[in-house]
């Protein structure tokens, strides 16, 4: 089945972990650091670093947004349990979306838009993104305050890696 992708990320509506509808357009003018998360596995420690980054930059026009995915196995099936693990075990206060499919026909429009834009970006700037579907947990997608994808980082890239933070800081609307 062919899915029509939204032209702009700001045309996408998502559901948060508590079941509330969110318009990504509400974050227009902010740098958004989307990260595909799980609550198990070695990379889960990245949640603490992501929270630190959110705390450091949130007053400068910045959001971290978690996209929990069951694609990699081990993720609780219940959104409430995912929220509890992220909020209580890892002190996450940044927005958490409802568990999302990241591949196939049921892939969310947000993840499809992100991976499609990464494929386009990789054609022009291979050092900033890699093409194709989601491959691992904790992949990161950085959206500029103008709604363009700035970069896609592997799940193995630490959330506070120098090149990632330099990119974020250079695009923050409030310096």
UniProtKB/TrEMBL annotation:
Protein name as annotated: Glutathione peroxidase
Alphabetically ordered keywords of this record: Oxidoreductase, Peroxidase
Entry GO MF terms: peroxidase activity
Keyword Cytoplasm annotated: no
GO biological process, one term: cellular response to oxidative stress
Pfam families assigned: GSHPx
SUPFAM superfamilies in the cross-refs: Thioredoxin-like
Family (UniProt): Belongs to the glutathione peroxidase family.
UniProt entry tagged with the keyword Oxidoreductase: yes
Native source organism of the sequence: Corynebacterium mendelii
């Amino acid at each position: 089945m062919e899915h029509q992708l939204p032209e702009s990320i700001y045309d996408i509506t998502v559901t948060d972990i508590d079941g509330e509808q969110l318009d990504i357009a509400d974050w227009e003018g902010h740098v958004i650091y989307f990260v595909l998360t799980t609550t198990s596995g070695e990379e889960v420690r990245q949640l603490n670093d992501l929270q630190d980054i959110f705390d450091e930059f949130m007053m400068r026009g910045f959001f971290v947004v978690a996209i929990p995915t069951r694609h990699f196995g081990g993720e609780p099936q219940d959104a409430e349990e995912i929220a509890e693990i992220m909020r209580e075990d890892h002190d996450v206060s940044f927005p958490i979306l409802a568990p999302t499919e990241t591949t196939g026909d049921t892939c969310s429009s947000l993840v499809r838009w992100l991976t499609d834009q990464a494929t386009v970006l990789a054609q022009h700037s291979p050092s900033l993104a890699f093409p194709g579907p989601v491959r691992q947990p904790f992949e990161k997608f950085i959206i500029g305050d103008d709604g363009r994808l700035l970069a896609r980082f592997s799940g193995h890239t630490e959330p506070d890696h120098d090149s990632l933070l330099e990119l974020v800081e250079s695009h923050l609307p409030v310096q």
